[in-house]
Amino acid sequence: MSLEITFLGTGSAFPSPCRGASALVLRREGQCWLFDCGEGTQTQLMRSHLRAARITKIFITHLHGDHMFGLPGLLCTLSLQSSPDSSKAPVDIYGPLGLRSFVWRSLELSHSQLLFPITVHELVPTRDQCPAEEFKDFSSLDRGEGLPQGPPGRVLHLDPGEDSYLLVEEEQLVVRAFRLFHRVPSFGFVLEEKPRPGKLNVQKLKDLG
Description:
16% of the residues lie in helices and 27% in strands. With 209 residues, it is of the alpha/beta class. It has one domain: Ribonuclease Z/Hydroxyacylglutathione hydrolase-like (Metallo-beta-lactamase, Chain A, 4-Layer Sandwich), CATH 3.60.15. The chain has a seven-stranded mixed sheet with strand order 1-2-3-4-5-6-7. The chain has a three-stranded antiparallel sheet with strand order 8-9-10, with no helix packed on it. The radius of gyration is 19 Å and the shape is globular. The two termini are 33 Å apart. This is RNZ1 protein. It comes from Toxostoma redivivum (California thrasher). InterPro entries: RibonucZ/Hydroxyglut_hydro (IPR036866), RNase_Z/BN (IPR013471). Homodimer. Its cofactor is Zn(2+).
């Protein structure tokens, strides 16, 4: 399995003229997976050899602005560059609880309509992922009567046995999230390549000694 990583931004707090806010792209089999989407990610993509239209999954580590303020703008640009296609697979977005509300409200308030579907999968954090005074419970967002529904997606809880969250399982790999401690609940992401059975004929080897 061929993997290529491109760092689009490694700065913190805000972008600078020569250094973007947090964002990196993993390219595999013609797809691009974006990890974090700080302000200026679109511009960095344009300067790279990557094609933004190939982004199929987006992973957000935590809800600080320098890791997600570029997301609504990127989604809108991708929409402007695409044509309506009801059969197109949705762009999957993964991140902490509250991300669905952020995406939906940003698009709703700016009167932005995407020409492709998105799904937002939220990871429910545990209270020990940040200082107690910083923890905010976003589980009740957008659940009141009469509120429009945000984008669809799953709500993912910690698997105590694995101490992680199962996000993606494909034929070749598994993607899991694990908990990190930060000023707000944060997550790291692990891509595990599945074991591939060998092609040796064990019995023939034994017969040959």
